[in-house]
C-alpha cells in the first residue's frame, strides 16, 4: 500500500523538485547580477538617507566582514525580489496541469498581475514611503545626537521594507486565488470589509513604524487594492 502511494505521488514529487530547482537557480542568477552591481545599488538606496537630514554624513560598520556580508545580504534580497515573477510562474506551472484550459488562462493572468502588483508595491515603498519613514526616523537627530546607522542593518531594513510592501500589494492576487479555490467568496469579503479595514490599518501602522502620515499613505492604496480584489473575484467567478 505504501509503495503504491509513493508511485502515485512520485511524478508530482519529481515535478515539484524541478520547479523548486528552477526557482533556486533564478534566485541565484538574479543575486549574482545584483552582487555585480551591489555598490551602485547600495549607493542608490543610501541616497534617501542622506537627503533625510543634513546631519547624516556617513554610514559605519563595526566589524571587518560586515560590509562584505552586507553586500551579500543585499544581493540575495534583491535577487529574491527580482526573481518574484519566476517564482510565481513556476508555481503556476506546477498547478497548471491539473487545471482546465480556461482556468490555465486565468492562472496566467493572475501570475502577470501578481508580478505587476509586487513591482508597484516595491516602487511605492522606494519612492513614496521610504523617504517619509527616513525623515521621521532622522527627525530625532540633532547637534547633540549624531546618527550613525550601520551599513548592513540599514540596507537590510530598506530591502525588507521594499519586499514587505511588494507582498502587501498582493492582496487582490490572494483574494482571487482564494475565490478560485472556493475557499472564500466575494460576498464574505464584502460582509467582513470593516474588520479587514481594521487589519489593514494595523499592518500599515506597523510597516510605517508608527508614522501617522505614512500610515495613511499606505492604508489608502491597500484599501483600494482590497476593493479591487472583490471586483476581480466577481469578474473571474461571476456572482458569489
What features would you describe in this structure?
This protein is mainly α. 80% of the residues lie in helices and 0% in strands. The longest helix is centred in the middle third of the chain and has 38 residues. The chain is flat, with a radius of gyration of 21 Å.
Question: What's the structural blueprint in terms of helices and strands?
Answer:
Elements: H1 2-36, H2 38-52, H3 66-82, H4 84-95, H5 101-138, H6 151-168, H7 171-180, H8 186-191, H9 193-207, H10 212-237
Helix pairs in contact: 1-3, 1-4, 2-5, 3-6, 4-5, 5-6, 5-7, 5-10, 7-10, 9-10
Radius of gyration: 21 Å
Helices, by number, come to 10
**Largest sheet descriptor:** none
Count of the domains = 1
Number of strands: 0
Write a concise synopsis of the structure shown.
By secondary structure, this protein is mainly α.
Which labels suit this protein?
240 residues; mainly alpha
Amino acid at each position: 500500500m505504501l509503495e503504491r502511494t509513493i508511485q502515485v505521488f512520485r511524478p508530482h514529487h519529481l515535478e515539484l523538485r524541478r520547479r523548486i530547482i528552477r526557482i533556486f537557480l533564478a534566485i541565484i542568477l538574479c543575486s549574482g547580477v545584483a552582487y555585480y552591481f551591489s555598490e551602485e545599488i547600495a549607493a542608490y538606496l543610501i541616497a534617501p538617507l542622506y537627503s533625510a537630514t543634513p546631519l547624516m554624513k556617513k554610514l559605519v560598520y563595526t566589524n571587518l566582514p560586515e560590509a562584505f556580508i552586507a553586500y551579500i545580504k543585499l544581493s540575495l534580497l534583491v535577487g529574491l525580489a527580482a526573481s518574484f515573477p519566476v517564482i510565481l510562474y513556476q508555481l503556476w506551472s506546477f498547478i497548471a496541469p491539473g487545471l482546465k484550459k480556461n482556468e490555465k488562462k486565468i492562472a496566467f493572468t493572475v501570475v502577470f498581475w501578481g508580478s505587476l502588483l509586487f513591482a508597484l508595491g516595491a516602487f511605492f515603498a522606494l519612492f513614496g514611503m521610504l523617504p517619509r519613514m527616513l525623515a521621521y526616523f532622522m527627525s530625532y537627530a540633532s547637534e547633540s545626537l549624531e546618527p550613525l546607522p550601520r551599513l548592513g542593518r540599514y540596507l537590510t531594513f530598506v530591502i525588507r521594507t521594499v519586499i514587505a510592501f511588494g507582498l502587501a500589494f498582493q492582496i487582490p492576487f490572494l483574494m482571487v486565488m482564494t475565490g478560485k479555490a472556493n475557499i472564500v467568496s466575494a460576498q464574505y469579503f464584502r460582509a467582513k470589509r470593516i474588520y479587514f479595514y481594521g487589519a489593514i490599518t494595523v499592518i500599515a501602522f506597523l510597516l510605517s513604524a508608527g508614522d501617522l502620515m505614512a500610515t495613511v499613505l499606505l492604508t489608502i492604496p491597500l484599501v483600494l487594492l482590497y476593493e479591487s480584489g472583490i471586483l476581480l473575484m466577481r469578474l473571474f467567478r461571476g456572482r458569489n
